[in-house]
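Table 4 source record.
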Amino acid sequence: MKHFVTFALLLILNVHQAFAGPVRIKDLVEFDGVRGNDLVGYGLVVGLNGSGDGLRNAPFTEEIMSNILERLGVNVAGEQFRPKNVAAVFVTAALPPFARGGSQIDVTVSAIGDASSLLGGTLIMTPLNAADGQIYAVAQGTIIAGGVVAEGNGANVTQGVPTAGTIPSGARVEREIEFDLSNLNNLRLALRDADFTTAGRIEQAINADFGRPVAFMLDSGTVQLNIPETRMASVAHALGRIENISVLPERKARVVVDQRSGTIVMGEDVRISRVAVSQGNLTLRIEEAPIAVQPNPFAEGETVIVPRTNAEIEEEPGIGLAEVPDGTSLSEVIAGLNALGVAPRDMIDILKSIKAAGALHAEFIVR
């Protein structure tokens, strides 16, 4: 049977095919304590081609510019200066786990004033703070903007987002996160998608690989490791061995629908109970066509507007009453609807109605 896909994307994912083979534990869990930290800073971008902040609308830009100049030994107290090539920005970055002093990380720069573009600008040395208020990195460099602006006397065009950009390796780590991995006796594995079956399989796979009980499932989202029982040279050696153990994960029956793009993503385990489906569209059209009636020649009277209304109802062809047998997979239902030429948005409405009727046995997520 040939399936026809409309312009709006209809995507059917078969979870069984996507996860046909085992998956490494490192792709299923996060190791407790082995995590990144978010950094943020407030800085100044210079060198813009007249696309910076209007200092009348962004006085904080003038304030930070004055502070920077004064730290460099330039006294600007009481001076009036309003350059158009500077912009105040927020600088964000993620400090990866075990980042050492001197290593470099990427940063994202975003304008917070009324600057129209950061293209070609240079970020002045900006300290980046973590949630504890301490400085962990310092950022500086030339910005690679994410868009472009072209303008003339009568029109302008913008592509992408020129008010935000990145600086690859634009920040240097100045302070390290204190975390002593080597002295841990117990370490928890946090599943990204909590599931009792998957957690149990991880426990069994780790114990089978080491040949003794070194892992214990605490709940659907946590597996605890007894590090001394691994008898490895260090915690790092134990984690390096564990993260490459393969496990077959279990997934919930789930249907995800994106109404804006008409995308439908589903798993193979989604099932539908016995249900009957009928779908069609009614179109009501009302047109006003008033007629002007004038008096006869040489007769007294006034022109009168006589209303004329044309009303009609059209029923577009849809799906007649169709019965879906018990135990049918959702992918088979979608394939049948798709073969009938049902539009993705109508298909989404049908799925909503089947879920509301209690016949769709899966988690239904609408975005």
